[in-house]
Amino acid sequence: MPRVSSTSIRGIITDTYPAYPLSKHNRRLIQLVNETQGCLPIFEKCRDVLESGLKPDLTTYTALLEAYERNNDLDAVLRTFEEMELVGITPNISAYNIGLRV
User: What is the pLDDT, as a whole number, of residue 18?
Assistant: First the structure.
């Protein structure tokens, strides 16, 4: 199955499979990160992911971290890192860089 690569606001390349149920949500999240300066649309899309019964992946969490960065919310960033660890998702260097910027 071919992969679709997208580039986020910070040049982060994320790979996703078009048939993967989370793909359309992640593509929209990447667009929101690139297009908007606010964090509310990103939070709303992340809520849509959860309400759809899908499990967030690294791309989803990275977009969420970007929103928390825009909000300068260090506590939320740290909670997100803890949640990622609990569900078995290892943050990548881009995610850690977001945390360091906050």
Answer: 53
99, two tokens: 């945390």
Q: What is the pLDDT of residues 60-90, one digit of tens each?
A: 999 999 999 999 999 999 999 999 999 999 9
The pLDDT confidence band at residue 56, using thresholds 50, 70 and 90, is: very high
Residue 100 in 3-state DSSP? Answer: helix
Please report, for residues 21, 29, 94, 98, the alpha-carbon distance to residue 39 in angstroms, rounded to integers and kept in the order given: 23, 11, 18, 14
What is the Cα–Cα distance from 102 to 35, expressed in whole angstroms?
20
45 contacts: CB under 8 Å, gap ≥ 6: 25, 28, 29, 32, 63
If you write DSSP's letter for every residue of 22-75 in order, what string do you get?
THHHHHHHHHHHHH-SSSHHHHHHHHHHHHTTPPP-HHHHHHHHHHHHHTT-HH
Comparison of pLDDT for 44 and 14, the residue scoring more? 44
User: In the numeric block, which tokens belong to residue 55?
Assistant: 């499990």
